[in-house]
Structure of Complex I intermediate-associated protein 30:
Amino acid sequence: MFAATPSLRAGYPGFFRRSMDELKRQAKFAVKMEGLHIPIKPFPLIKFDEPLSPERCKMMCDSDVGGFSRASLTYVPGAAHVERTAGEGSDIKKGGVIVNAPAHEGEEPSHAVFAGSISTELPPNRPQIQRSGYAGFRTRDRGMSLFGKLLWDLSPYSYLALRIKSDGRKYFVNFQTESIVPTDLHQHLLPSYSPGEWETVTIPFSALVRTNYGQVVEPQKEMMSTKVRSVGISLIDRVPGPFELKIADIYATNRPPERKAGQEETGFDLSFEPEDEDAGRGMMDEIEPRRKKGEPERILI
């Protein structure tokens, strides 16, 4: 017997199935000329609607390098998810949404629980680590197909939407793309206007902030939305104690937010100042040494 590939273990289809799905997607795009109009359907990035859904995500925690934080992502069954396009029912706003099935309105949707505890205790006998206390997850790479590496093209969409139930802590949404600087992320504070209740929050893609190892970098470049590798959520407030965030769906849409997110709500200080050369980045220094002053950015060739 052959061992299962990582993508199969993570609940993704095999190589030929991925290739056929990509062929169907491209053929549908061409036949319907979808590039000529604004999409009215939501574009799911991940839906936690089945038991295998959490396996499509990769967990990250300081315990991986000796820290004492703990984190898990577990599936909880609930109401089915349905995609609603603009104009359906009483919904006349532009852009699609993902909601509970009509027969289960008001119930808790099937979802994943991102939970654990944060500890800022430093690992013993590792003096090079000066900071600790983070946890997060991101979607796994979707693998290869006959058409090359599978990436998301989010350029037809203006917003990211997340259906969540937050505990009110300071979470961040993170995007990774096929950037020429492989350690770049585009991030934004995950808004929560009703902690303890289910809500759909929306972030404009134009509001994402380019960072490198958690630091705002210049020049600020728009995210390469045609080649998106993964989306994830992290907790990096370094406040010790338990946390719990419930996530039902993460999707792209053209439906504008109910309330505007101002620049001050990105979660970053955008008044750029060079960081202290002597300040340690904690465990990030374990992954890759800091770029020295005057040294060019490391790029992916």
Residues 15-31 form the longest helix (17 residues). The chain is about 10% helix and 30% strand. The two ends are 37 Å apart (CA to CA).
